[in-house]
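> example.struct
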């Protein structure tokens, strides 16, 4: 095996093992920043040794054992530990835990990963910090990869991650799965982070590309892990179902030249049936767990209406509008109201939809939201009010930072009045 091949193999192993390694180390040292440093030390050791010795049969166990030895070495060198007795006691504890884990590294890996998710997505952190830390620790992305995905400077992402780890350490956030009301609040934060990552991948807020497929894949991977770790949480399955169904349309959303293809114009033969079946199965699991559907499960049910329609004309828009009614009751927001208005327009005619959209025009939070004038332009165009529609599409184009969306909106503006949709 060449050095290049060896490094590729190590990188592949690292992507798989890093989250479990960091989770297990965090349980031991109770410091997510130190745990990541120890994991990185183990990676350096692998890069030095594996090209010569070969990748071990159980690379995860090798990395964990190496990291634990590094932890003991650090504690021996750590001048901040003032009391020798405490230092030696901690050292003995680490040695015992290392011995227990040598034969079976995966004993507590499920619990450890779940705890790491709850730490990375802790509400004490700002949303953008939660996203960066989660992608770093649980998706094994480098700082450069995260920065590139979100089109922000590497230094900005690095600072967010460093501050997040420092905040968690200073707050002494326990390495545990919360219970009771705190579990609900923290689970909501975890789901929000995964959904934010997916949405940025599915509809990039800026840049030249409509999608960033890598982020969608990372979010789906995190969602599937969480569903396995928390199988009785219906909203987890709801979110996975939503992401799977949305991801099924990826190939159909972009044309040969990279142009956006709108949902109703997409070739449904290009929708991925594997993603659809997975998504519908996840939605069914959420429904079988009982109780009223939560926000993610409701959105998955909406996506399922599209997935089940063999053609755009077969779409059950009345059911979609009713599901948005339920979503608006459960999670009222201007964006939900805008989506509800679009569904009403499709189910009951553009005039009905426009009436609802017009109520949102003065909403401060939607002032710079390009999808508001875009939706209004679409409804105006259907009503034959071409000049007004053109102005709305042009306004929407001026608000978006995504090049592909801007191109689409300008094309729609130019087509107004020419009988072209």
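> example.seq
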């Amino acid at each position: 095996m060449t050095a290049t091949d060896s490094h590729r193999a190590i990188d592949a192993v690292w992507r798989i093992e890093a989250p479990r390694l960091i989770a297990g180390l965090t349980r031991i040292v109770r410091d997510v920043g130190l745990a990541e440093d120890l994991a990185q030390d183990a990676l350096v050791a692998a890069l030095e040794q594996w090209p010569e010795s070969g990748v071990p049969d159980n690379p995860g166990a090798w990395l964990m054992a190496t990291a634990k030895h590094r932890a003991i070495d650090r504690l021996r060198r750590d001048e901040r530990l003032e009391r020798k007795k405490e230092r030696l006691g901690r050292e003995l504890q680490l040695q015992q835990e290392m011995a227990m884990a040598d034969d079976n590294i995966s004993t507590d890996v499920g619990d450890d990963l779940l705890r790491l998710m709850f730490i990375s997505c802790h509400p004490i952190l700002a949303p953008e910090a939660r996203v960066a830390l989660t992608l770093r620790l649980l998706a094994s992305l480098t700082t450069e990869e995260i920065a590139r995905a979100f089109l922000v400077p590497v230094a900005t992402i690095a600072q967010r991650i460093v501050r997040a780890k420092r905040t968690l350490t200073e707050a002494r956030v326990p390495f545990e799965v919360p219970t009771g009301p705190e579990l609900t609040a923290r689970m909501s934060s975890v789901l929000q982070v995964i959904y934010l990552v997916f949405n940025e991948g599915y509809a990039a807020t800026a840049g030249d590309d409509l999608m960033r497929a890598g982020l969608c894949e990372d979010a789906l991977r995190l969602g599937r892990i969480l569903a396995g770790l928390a199988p009785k949480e219906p909203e987890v399955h709801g979110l996975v179902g939503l992401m799977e169904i949305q991801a099924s349309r990826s190939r159909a959303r972009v044309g040969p030249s990279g142009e956006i293809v709108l949902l109703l114009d997409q070739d449904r033969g290009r929708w991925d049936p594997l993603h659809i079946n997975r998504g519908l199965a996840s939605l069914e699991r959420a429904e079988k767990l009982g109780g009223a559907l939560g926000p993610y499960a409701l959105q998955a049910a909406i996506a399922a209406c599209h997935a089940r329609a063999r053609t755009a004309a077969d779409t059950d828009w009345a059911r979609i509008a009713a599901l948005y009614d339920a979503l608006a009751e459960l999670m009222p927001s201007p964006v939900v109201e805008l989506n509800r208005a679009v569904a009403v327009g499709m189910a009951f005619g553009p005039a009905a939809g426009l009436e609802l959209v017009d109520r949102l025009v003065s909403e401060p939070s939607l002032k710079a939201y390009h999808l508001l004038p875009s939706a209004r332009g679409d409804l105006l165009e259907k009503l034959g009010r071409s000049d007004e529609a053109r102005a709305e599409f042009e306004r929407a184009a001026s608000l978006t930072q995504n090049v592909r969306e801007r191109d689409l909106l300008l094309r729609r503006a130019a087509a107004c009045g020419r009988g072209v949709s």
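> remarks
The two ends are 56 Å apart (CA to CA).
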